[in-house]
Every structure is written in structure tokens, then in C-alpha cells.
Write a structure and sequence with these properties.
single chain; alpha/beta; three-stranded antiparallel sheet; 3 helices
């Protein structure tokens, strides 16, 4: 295939019983990404994924249906992955340097019962409003495939491209090293809601 796909366990940042595995996962990830980078002539795209997002603008956790959140909050302002507290900065501090060093193309997550596409972003700062030769990873949150309830959004973040609180799922397609497409499909009628087309002339570490 053309995609090197890595699934991460971010429970190591949010549950005390899992913290002992944090450094081991980071060491493993660096070795894995190093090998993937050396093989990009054959497998050009690198995607990371986890249950938890690194960026999001949801302001609820669908009441008690997550079983680990505080329920509905005031949706009137952007809080930025509010339910993760300061741990989100630790996650970014651990993962983003590796994503930059090895030129990770995209990061997918769920947990939030909604859909959000995010412009290329580093360190909580938007890099560009373009998916053509992006200079940072593209983040996609898609956690409403079969969720029992939907989350609400506050104001868009500076790096938010689109927000949708509706049930749907995604498809990733690519046929070469230059274009990868994420298509977001609504459960209701299989209508296409959004497409994120990432176009790259090369796959290199981000400067």
C-alpha cells in the first residue's frame, strides 16, 4: 500500500495507570517513523491516529454518554479540547517534534462525537489555509460514525476549517505519492459533506 498507518494509545496521558507506558511508546514511535521515512519511495504517506484528538473545538462530551467527561458546557466560546486540561500540551510537546522530524502527513482522531477538519497546524498555531504542500500535519476529527449522541461546538478555533455536528464517517483514498483525499460522508443518505485533498510534491521532514 501507499500509506504507513500508525495507531497510538493516548491513554498514557490521561490515565494514571497507563502513564508508565508513555516513554516506551515514544521510543517505539520514533523508531517506527524513522523506518517509515526511509521507505517513503515505496510508501510515501505517513498517517498517525488515536482515539483522542490533538486539536478540536468541541465544547461538550455528549452529556454522560462518554463516561469520562463533564457533560454540556457553554458553547459560546472556543476553549480548545477543553476536556483534556493541561494534558493536551504534554501530548503536543511529545508528539509534534516527532511529527515534524519525520514529516507526518495527517493525524486522525475520534472521541469527539462530531466532525472537524483542521488547517495545517503546529504548536496551536495555524501554518497556512492550504492543503497544497502543507508545512505541518493536517488534523481530522471524526468521531460520529455511530455515536449515541452528538457533541456541540463553540466558536471555531483559529485553525478550524469546518465543523459539523452530525453522524458521518470518512474514506481515505490515494493512488500515488502526490494526492491523498479524505472524504466525509453523512450517514443520512450517504451524502458527501466534505473533501480534504492534500497535495504534496515531496514527502520530507518539516523545516
Amino acid at each position: 500500500g501507499l500509506v504507513h498507518f500508525v495507531s497510538l494509545d493516548l491513554n498514557v496521558y490521561y490515565f494514571d495507570t497507563e502513564g508508565q507506558y508513555r516513554q516506551g511508546q515514544l521510543d517505539w514511535l520514533e523508531k517506527d517513523l524513522e523506518a517509515a521515512q526511509s521507505n517513503r519511495a515505496q510508501v510515501p504517506w505517513i498517517i498517525l491516529a488515536s482515539h483522542y484528538p490533538m486539536y478540536c473545538s468541541s465544547v461538550t462530551l455528549a452529556g454522560n454518554l462518554h463516561n469520562d467527561g463533564q457533560g454540556d458546557e457553554d458553547p459560546g466560546s472556543f476553549k480548545g479540547c477543553w476536556s483534556y486540561g493541561g494534558a493536551i500540551d504534554v501530548v503536543r510537546g511529545d508528539l509534534e517534534p516527532l511529527m515534524k522530524k519525520f514529516g507526518v502527513d495527517l493525524y486522525f482522531a475520534g472521541h469527539e462525537h462530531d466532525y472537524e477538519s483542521i488547517w495545517p497546524v503546529w504548536n496551536n498555531t495555524i501554518v497556512s489555509k492550504s492543503f497544497v504542500d502543507p508545512k505541518a500535519p493536517v488534523h481530522i476529527v471524526t468521531g460520529a460514525g455511530g455515536a449515541p449522541a452528538l457533541d456541540k461546538f463553540g466558536d471555531p478555533a483559529p485553525w478550524t476549517r469546518r465543523q459539523l455536528s452530525a453522524w458521518g464517517y470518512g474514506r481515505i483514498t490515494t493512488e500515488n505519492s502526490t494526492v491523498l483525499t479524505y472524504t466525509h460522508v453523512l450517514n443520512d443518505g450517504d451524502a458527501i459533506y466534505d473533501e480534504v485533498v492534500v497535495a504534496k510534491s515531496s514527502h520530507e521532514p518539516f523545516a
